[in-house]
From TrEMBL, chains A, B:
Sequence ranges assigned to domain Semialdehyde dehydrogenase NAD-binding in this UniProt record: 6-121
CDD domains assigned: ASADH_C_bac_euk_like, VcASADH2_like_N
Lineage of origin: Bacteria, Bacillati, Bacillota, Bacilli, Bacillales
Organism of origin: Fontibacillus solani
The reaction(s) this protein catalyses: L-aspartate 4-semialdehyde + phosphate + NADP(+) = 4-phospho-L-aspartate + NADPH + H(+)
Protein name: Aspartate-semialdehyde dehydrogenase
């Protein structure tokens, strides 16, 4: 049984890649050799890991020889092209893109919910979408206890979910507005689509491309991934995904209808005891989760718990987490830690 | 029958008062004499109306002699104290505060929904809360056609709803963050409460004070006012009200469950034909309502219409309107116009 692992990070110079490297260091992950990979454009960049300097190399089909665990976060196209090569070389791939999430052979894993699926992989384990991860992590203890019949979620998503360029655009536009100038939209809502909208001091109800059914891809990810992660197609999910001018941290207004009656005090105690969840819920002291306070932290923060006054099985919740950490890098590193423990 | 009216605006120097004066001018309201009233602090300010200069006077119990219509927007306490004096002097009060909204004798009016209630007033007509007005205006044609059994709403509310000081705070904090400094919270979420939170680049799930049931007053306003305006206690409403860094324009993610089956095309055509509603709903051209585009306009903008994939009677909508206009000043002036027509 191996106790140290050769690890590759694909997309090492990106926002999520940077957090993966930081977390491998912070968690003292049993790294034997760390290989940092990127596109040709970023290759040659020198990054630090545990006091060592590592030069980023261009990722290619033969980059994965001797690699045990490969963490991908360089976009869906890169994963589709290179993940099979990593598997061919014997690596376990933890993929942070949308490329394999709905593939029946790829487990879609949030460790707090379905860590048992990790051992069933056939080479590729998919990391869910950021907005799905924090929601299902918070709902898991309630699902186990009361059953869930439906979820109605509205998101308040940070621009960092659209990459470093979107952060820069939002900050630049904010400055332009404050100076009395016209803010020029350039990237958001979707870089590859023709129409752009101002994000500074605005709320854009579009994340990713529209599907034929009128939902955006981001909204459909929340619907499909939630069912797959819980392994329960009976959960009805409907989502409205909205980008707001926040840098780090997705917030979610989640309405959940349980299959069974519940007591609010039991919901509170289940969440207070759940791994990876921090309960922040004290109206008397105006305490509730906030994006600015969740930023940089690994946990999922839950608050504003209150019963629907019209439906005794309905509960309103406010769920906040750092979209680059639990929503991406941290969830991936958690999966890697479980794989490492299993040797 | 009168054809010209003596009009008083209480709170004339505030954000809503300013918009009321602008709208009376823009709509060529049949004003005989316009009296502008404020607190002692703002009295003496000179404002312009149709080319004339009008000096703002301090509002008091005897300010309303000869006044036909008094528009109040100077806070609940001022309304509670002075509106009865206005009524005593024979004026019809259109009150923009929370003071009388749930009083059984005060009609709570959104003209597109229940204009018929105006004639039933006993001196005071209440203007609903901003977040309620835009939602019920958009839901009215759908309520009439399909019936509504429940509404689940999450709001994305502009800081202007908390007054000019909150706008200044949000802009100041934004500048502080952009300059790399620590933003100092001073006003939001609730000026009169001890705990303050950063609003710049954040989302605060608290608008107004918490009630004993865990909901905020803003959330309970949406629940109670919706039932009263539709005159239908059977509508179940649950709300999550959130302040986001937007200056003007509240956005709302509204999930509505109809009593009867519906066709999406009919929803579209009902909304396209409804008075005061502008349908902005074309995913192919990435068209949907945006706060920045609704700002300064009187209409309620509706889009992102799509059926809940799990509940054939469920519909998701995105509703946006300028909270100072349809959400306050414009709704009040609409009511005043109907009173004027009735002489």
């Amino acid at each position: 049984m191996k106790t140290k692992f050769n690890v590759a990070v694909v997309g090492a110079t990106g926002a999520v890649g940077e957090q993966i490297i930081r977390l491998l260091e912070k968690r003292d992950f049993p790294v034997d050799k760390l290989k940092l990979l990127s596109s040709a454009r970023s290759a040659g960049t020198v990054l630090r890991f545990k006091g060592q300097e590592i030069t980023v190399e261009e990722a290619g089909p033969d980059s994965f020889e001797g690699i045990d665990i490969a963490l991908f976060s360089a976009g869906g196209d890169v994963s589709k092209e290179l993940a099979p090569h990593a598997v061919r070389h014997g690596a376990v791939v933890i993929d942070n893109t949308n490329a394999f999430r709905m593939e029946p052979t790829a487990p879609l894993v949030v460790p707090e919910v379905n860590a048992d699926m990790i051992s069933k992989h056939q080479g590729i384990i998919a990391n869910p979408n950021c907005s799905t991860i924090q929601m299902v992590a918070a709902l898991k203890p309630l699902y186990d206890r009361f059953g869930i019949s439906r979820i109605i979620v509205s998101t308040y998503q940070a621009v960092s979910g659209a990459g470093a360029k979107a952060i820069n655009e939002m900050l630049r536009q904010s400055k332009e507005v404050l100076e009395g100038n016209d803010p020029k939209p350039d990237i958001l809502p979707v870089g590859s689509l023709p129409v752009k909208h101002q994000i500074a001091f605005n709320a854009i109800p579009q994340i990713d491309k529209f599907q034929d059914n009128g939902y955006t891809l981001e909204e459909m990810k929340m619907v499909r991934e939630t069912k797959k992660i819980f392994g329960d197609d009976s959960i009805e999910v409907t989502a409205t995904c909205v980008r707001i001018p926040v840098v780090y941290g997705h917030s979610e207004s989640v309405y959940v209808e349980f299959k069974n009656d519940y007591e609010l005090e039991e919901v509170r105690s289940l969440l207070a005891d759940a791994p990876g969840i921090t309960l922040v819920d004290d109206p008397a002291s105006q305490s509730y989760p906030l994006a600015t306070e969740a930023a940089g932290k690994e946990d999922v923060f839950v608050g504003r718990l209150r019963r629907d006054l019209g439906n005794k099985r309905g509960l309103n919740m406010w769920i906040v987490s750092d979209n680059l950490l639990k929503g991406a890098a941290w969830n991936a590193v958690q999966i890697a830690e479980i794989i490492a423990k299993q040797g």
